[in-house]
Design a protein that fits this description.
heterodimer; A: 4 helices; 55% helix; 17% strand; globular; B: 2 domains; six-stranded mixed barrel; 11 strands
Chain lengths: 119, 363
Amino acid sequence: MSTKDADRIELLQGTLDLLILQTLAMGHLHGHAICKAIERNSDDVLLVEQGSLYPALHRLIKRGWIRTEEGLSENNRRAKYYRLTARGRRQLIVETTKWDRLARAVGQILRPARQENSL
Amino acid sequence: MMRSLWNKYRLDGLEEDIREHIERETEENIERGMTPDEARHAALRKFGNVARVQEDTRAVWTVVWLEQLMQDVRYGARMLRGNPGFAAVVIATLALGIGMNTAVFSVVNAVMFQPLPYPDAGRLIWLGDYSTYDRRDYFVPRTDYLAWKSQSRSFESMAAYGNQDLAFVSGGEASQERIASVTGDFWAITGAQPAVGRIFRPQEPNRMVLSGALFERRFRGDPNAIGKTVTLNGYPHAITGGLPKTFRFALPQQFTKGDETRNIDAYISIPDALMALSWSTKAVVWYAAEDQFGPAPWAVHVVARLRPGAPLERARAEIQTLYDRLAREKPGYMRDNTLLHFSRFVGPVAQSGVNRPIEGTPS
């Protein structure tokens, strides 16, 4: 929790869906835990307005990429868990590939200038 | 159709999920060393606007619903074109239905949205607690009303009231009547004048004023009824007067699901001693007070009349300031603004959201 709020980066449109899929690939989680996992795994750099998680989750349910199930949490409270479906797992690969291509393309545009400077 | 029901099911747990989420975040913040108050504030800030999140989440499913509706409409249009006789019957049925609906609405409109039949109705203002969380009005804590009444400057008069259904026993005959308990400037605000007898003085205990209808129904309008003692749920009340039949109780009423708003049958006052009990008073104390002072409503509603020329905006700011001050001085039940998202509603009485049933009586 050391990163200051000012240093945090807001998520690009659409990336939250990808991050949720990736997070759920590691196991089923409840809503709050998904937020925590995303923050922790990005070394607290990514700023997720926690509320925006819910429209995103429902979008993913509608597309059939995740589903919900009732379960008990650590301290024996009833909680709703989200789990990746088989289709969601496939989609995660598609989305990850798309993201890699996008990142590479943007990187190629930005990097040549920097390489020249460093030479 | 099945799909839209399914969508509703999907969304059913949403509020609970969000509440749960905020609670978890709050607990984590407390573990991190924040005070419970700070923790909840921080959790809510981090969550963002709850109402907007709910709306956005619903919108995810609504789009599907709209697409399906369009498909149904196109299918229906094709069917009707193929069968003109059936189409004619359908159109006639719809025309009749819409016509009747419009007729009913015109009546409802005239009854429900007409200005209140009270003097200077345009300056009558409703002061309520509105919950953005479940989108309805709640009653106002009695302590708030007392602070607003004594300290606000924008209003020339203010009244609190609540309604209850009580057993009315007179001359060995019992009936259930709807009783309004009133305090403050209720009579000035409504402008009610007795047809017979007098209105009880403010805070005069155990007195009752009958509505014109009850006066006729139980006493056949006989002036000798004045001075008689009747009981309400066993508590004796002396009748001081009867209102004319033309007087109508037109302010919003609290009522539970399956119940309805009806006319008020009689009026009693809320004793000062009961008004002074704060909302967080334990039920035991409350019932003991009732034993001593008679039946009193558990909820009060507040109406006030603006001073001529006083801007509504200033009244709003004033009420909010008084509320905030009291919230700091006396934190307690019904002040959990952050979790329940209460906001003050200060606006025209006709816009009050209280005329919707509540789910049940409080325990």
